[in-house]
Structure formats: C-alpha cells, structure tokens
Design brief:
By secondary structure, this protein is an alpha+beta fold. The protein is 18% helix and 20% strand. The chain has a two-stranded parallel sheet. β1, α1 and β2 form a beta-alpha-beta unit.
Length: 50
C-alpha cells in the first residue's frame, strides 16, 4: 500500500470506486496527515493524467 510513502499535508486523489470509499482507507490516509479527494470520472477512456 502507498500509505507509508505519504508525507503530511499531501492530497490523495482517487476515483469514486466503491473500494476507495472504504472507511479503513480514509482513516489510514487521514492518520498519515493527508487529505482524501475524490475525482469523479466522466468517461472511462478519458484520463486527466495522460
């Protein structure tokens, strides 16, 4: 998992897949001192990062 690599005050962006919305994931990110933001995907073939 990427949690150990996070630094305080970083922003973690995830899509709104149900697995990403699990309480354990949100709590682990917040415990690391980071913020979780959901990016809502409009089209499966579109990518903001490509």
């Amino acid at each position: 998992m990427f949690i150990p690599k996070l630094k305080k005050m970083q922003i973690v962006v995830m899509d709104n897949a149900s697995i990403h919305k699990r309480k354990e994931i949100r709590e682990a990110i917040e415990k690391a001192g980071c913020h979780l933001v959901f990016h809502f995907v409009i089209c499966d073939s579109a990518s903001v990062f490509s």
